[in-house]
Amino acid sequence: MRQKTGVGTWIGFVVILVWCLLPVAWIVSLSFKSLAETTTGSPHFLPQDFTWDNYKVLLGMTSDKSTSHDFLASLRNSFGISIVATILAVMIATLAAYAIARLEFRGKRLVLSLALAIAMFPVVSLVGPLFDMWRTFHLFNTWPGLIIPYMTFTLPLAIWTLSAFFREIPWEMEQAAQVDGATSWQAFRKVIVPLAAPGVFTAAILTFFFAWNEFVLALSLTSTTTTRTVPAQMSFFVGPDPFNPPYVQLATASVIVTIPVIVIVLLFQRRIVAGLTSGAVKG
Amino acid sequence: MTATTIPRDQTKAAPAAASDRSVAENRLGQKLVAPALILMVLVTAYPMLQALYLSLFRYRLTTPDDKAFVGLGNYGVILTDSLFWKDTLNTVLIMLITVAVELVIGFAFAMVMHRIIFARGVMRTAILIPYGIITVVSAFAWQFTFSINNGWVNGTFGWLPGISSTTNWYGDHWHAMFAIMVSEIWKTTPFMALLLLAGLSQISEDMLEAAKVDGATAAQRLFKVIIPNMRAAIMVAVLFRALDAFRIFDNIFIMTKGAQNTESSSFLTYRQAIEQFQLGMGSALSVLLFLTVLLLAYLIVKLFRVDLAQARGE
């Protein structure tokens, strides 16, 4: 029996909302301040004179295209690299997770242990050797140069999420469909695919988040705007004085790259929570 | 993973001679995991060995002809340098403080999310935003929050002792460390809360009801029933978060660039290898960082008796 919602829970609810949304509200507010306002110093939370200028500058709707050119290029790189890495990682992880969930084979523990080790691996310690290797293989400052390590570092989470989902699928239904006269392809296509799709999709979201967020490798393995992703590009926005960066433009760029995240979260929150907790907790 | 043990749909093969079927299954399983296994080994194990090799050389990309074998010389230089120890101390401090704070706040959040019966979707959406947001963006948001000219902290919390309109949060070590830790905690508490929530939802209501009937106070129920029964979930959450916190890089790079002695181990490694092209020295730092994380993982697993099968997702 669960009792009525107490006052404490109500307060907790409000605290959590404020905690999670305040910094987001703050960058949104900053993105509508004018450059002049922050140059003179503006400790107010809300903009004193509301303006769309920063968005126009970053999205290339003004005559000065230098800022928008670099930003839009990095946005393109971020989308391209993240999507390709996600698709490839999920494909490889699906094969592995199917085997882990359904088959008995030697080396299963080895794969799971390696995945755990990689989930804890300090990515920075790869930066030096990868920098050296990628220059030899001509992968430095290329899309594959980032896609390959992104695939690797997202495999553990994708494998855990997918194998947890696959264990739940009632595989007998495939045989049942065949008994009822379906061909094995029909049984797979009409029965198994719809059951497995939510898991695959969840793994894809988590993988995409990782690639979209990644910073260390993006910073170290790229050198021009043809490959730099948004997080790396944003760290180069920082003008000559590190303590007086172009606040309003950075805030605007922040808002723009957060929009995909918020859209995905709004649409798929239930699945993301299920995916995040599936790998790590078992009763 | 679900609460119950999952019944395997195939019965274990007889222990006698392996049947054709199990041989085939073994082979298929290995084929299916091969791409993942090969990729993970090629991208992590091989470069790590490369780092081990390079760490024995004096090797700077700006003067490649000067490459020379120096044995363990690089390690000697690093381990006797106070900067290395200072950065390691910073990293350990950040790890201990952020994980401890996140555990407390995350637990409180999990309790609220567990109890709440309205607006669950809103709550889930809100809590996933810090999780999904780019760390670099979080770092910028908090950097501006604490900015002396454009932030709202000094104005809003000016009534607290030690904070005034002239408090410069990037002016000294402890203020800067505080700002960095706030950003780290904000971004990662939701992950902790969700893992704890999953553990919390495994506790049977009957057990709590029984404790209540037996006269246990709220505090007793929390410490004697809820927390002991969530131990496994808590330990896995701590293991993942502690190792993640130890690798802190993005927040420091954006917020202070390591000024005011706020550099972390990851930052030091990055700076040597990439900014200064010291591949020999940088590789030695890589190896040391890897060994530290390994040692840390070992200590956490042993000390807190983390169930590795669970962490592995078996």
Short description:
The complex is a heterodimer of chains A (283) and B (314). Chain A has 283 residues and is mostly helical.
| Rough outline of chain B | flat
Low-confidence stretches of chain B: 1-15
Helix/strand/pairing class of chain B, anyone? mainly alpha
Biggest sheet strand order of chain B reads 1-2
Plain-language structure description:
Chain A has helices at residues 7-31, 35-40, 53-58, 66-102, 108-119, 124-136, 143-168, 172-179, 184-213, 216-220, 230-236, 247-278. Chain A has 283 residues and is an all-alpha fold. Residues 1-15 of chain B have low confidence and may be disordered. Chain B has a two-stranded antiparallel ribbon. Chain B is built from 13 helices and two strands, in the order αββαααααααααααα.
Give a topology summary.
The complex is a heterodimer of chains A (283) and B (314).
Chain A: H1 7-31, H2 35-40, H3 53-58, H4 66-102, H5 108-119, H6 124-136, H7 143-168, H8 172-179, H9 184-213, H10 216-220, H11 230-236, H12 247-278
Helix pairs in contact in A: 1-12, 4-7, 4-9, 4-11, 5-7, 7-9, 7-12, 8-9, 9-12
Chain B: H1 20-54, E1 57-60, E2 63-69, H2 73-79, H3 82-115, H4 120-132, H5 135-145, H6 153-156, H7 173-200, H8 205-213, H9 218-246, H10 250-255, H11 265-275, H12 279-303, H13 308-312
Antiparallel strand pairs in B: 1-2
Provide the descriptors you would attach to this structure in a database record.
heterodimer, A: 283 residues, mainly alpha, MetI-like fold, 12 helices, 0% strand, B: 314 residues, two-stranded antiparallel sheet, 13 helices, flat, disordered N terminus
